[in-house]
Amino acid sequence: MSAIAAAAGVDRTTLHRRFANREALLSAVFQAKLDSAERVLDEARLVEAPLPVALHRYLEGIIPVSRQWPLDTRRMMQSDPAARDRRQVQSARLDAFIRRALDEGYLRADVDAAWARTILDQLVDTAAHRFPELEPPQAADLVVATFLNGLGAA
Predict the structure, then answer these.
(1) CATH no. for residue 66?
(2) What are phi and psi of 110, to 5 degrees?
(3) Rounded to whole angstroms, how far apart are CA atoms 62 and 59?
(4) Domain of residue 75, residue span
(5) How far apart are CA 107 and CA 116, in angstroms?
(6) CA–CA separation, 113 and 76 (whole Å)
(7) What does the pLDDT look like over 49-108, one tens digit per residue?
(8) d(CA 30, CA 110)
(9) 39-42: which pairs have CB atoms within 8 A and are 24 or more residues apart?
């Protein structure tokens, strides 16, 4: 909590007035990350927009979210059922988007949907954290090209 308070530019007392303990602070951060991710999913228009456009919108939005909230969510998913439920709904939206990419022929028919989703998630993580100098539009361009050309229909 001391390190977090220092990074936020406040003292520990101020931080403790707002958050009773480390878990409460992590929960608030996780909720903020979920809120941001939900906005990105909504704005990407994964169902309505042409697939490449929706993919680019998603990436251009989610890469900054991943950079802003570099929190490992697995721990929180175990201890916060409401957050876990929210995350599962968001994940289902991305899974449906991957199925759409397969159905519309943007991905090869022999590509497993779970594999494609894992690759997309890893590309987002790589663009966000291993290449922080890339602006979100540029990072999105690279991820779209890698994802659709690497798994795309020949």
Answers:
(1) 1.10.357.10
(2) -85, 0
(3) 5
(4) 28-151
(5) 8
(6) 26
(7) 999 999 999 999 999 999 988 877 766 677 778 888 988 999 999 999 999 999 999 999
(8) 35
(9) 40/65, 41/90, 41/93, 41/94
